[in-house]
Amino acid sequence: MPTAALSNPLAQLCDSSGFRGRNATASASAQLITLSPVAVLPSEACNQIIPQMTVVPSMVCGTSVGGGCEGDIGNPLVCNPQSTPVLEGLLTRFNNCGVILVVPEVYT
């Protein structure tokens, strides 16, 4: 996996896949894997939005509709620069389970 941040994070729209429960009480055995677009944010923006966590350049932070939820930790973030898919990180922190918020997810 890459050890540095994306070269141009503001221009990146990546994808994350997983079961993405709709809320914290959703069934742990979701039936379908979903693919969600993730808008990548610069680490400085994430540090302002999530002051209790320091997002360093080796982490990738982004927002998605619905966001991650219980059971989604470890979901992959794949970006597609120059038509070559690259695994950029794995989900390590998610927002409020399916609620559309501006709280980003963090991938390492």
Automatic annotation (TrEMBL):
GO terms for molecular function: serine-type endopeptidase activity. GO terms for biological process: proteolysis. Pfam families: Trypsin. SUPFAM superfamilies: Trypsin-like serine proteases (SSF50494). Residues 12-108 form the Peptidase S1 domain. This is Kallikrein-14-like. It comes from Spodoptera litura (Asian cotton leafworm). The lineage of its organism: Eukaryota, Metazoa, Ecdysozoa, Arthropoda, Hexapoda.
